[in-house]
Amino acid sequence: EAQVTQNPRYLITVTGKKLTVTCSQNMNHEYMSWYRQDPGLGLRQIYYSMNVEVTDKGDVPEGYKVSRKEKRNFPLILESPSPNQTSLYFCASSPGRTGELFFGEGSRLTVL
Amino acid sequence: QKEVEQDPGPLSVPEGAIVSLNCTYSNSAFQYFMWYRQYSRKGPELLMYTYSSGNKEDGRFTAQVDKSSKYISLFIRDSQPSDSATYLCAMSARGQNFVFGPGTRLSVLP
Q1: A26 to chain B, minimum CA–CA distance in Å?
Q2: pLDDT tens across A16-44, in order?
């Protein structure tokens, strides 16, 4: 089954404790991206990657890091999480430069 | 002014009604226009995709893009309770950096 898998789905952590949210897709897509979704603000792009070893900032990259060492994986790293990073996070992939984004189920992160 | 504006609703309609959802935008460079549907506690799924201006129809759904007015619409005919969800418009200039509207929550009442 074609899918984008995120882990963990739910996480409660404390300020400053490094965490990684993994994202994996099995559709051989070149493009992958991360979003955060907050009430009233919609989905905002954090980082995106056009291919392996190629990443670029989206609209809200501060406090986040990403890497793309393999085509299928695109982890999101929070080096020192803060409460304003409490949000619902989505990973998405796409076969090319179109709007056909395939989203994961989401990861709800709470930073205390 | 936000780059993409969308009426957040909630919008409640009776089953069988025609629903009109709209977004306005300010960036004239946008040329990829999408509508996504998001059910509660799920990731968004693509409903309609349009490149540049014009109309596109798929079953009960019709997407319209008016670049001169910087306005896009999604029409749902014969709405069903299963259409109850949040609808997100999204846009991109080069198919890399996507900008989403805040979403409109729709409830279709049986």
Answers
A1: 17
A2: 999 999 999 999 999 999 999 998 888 99
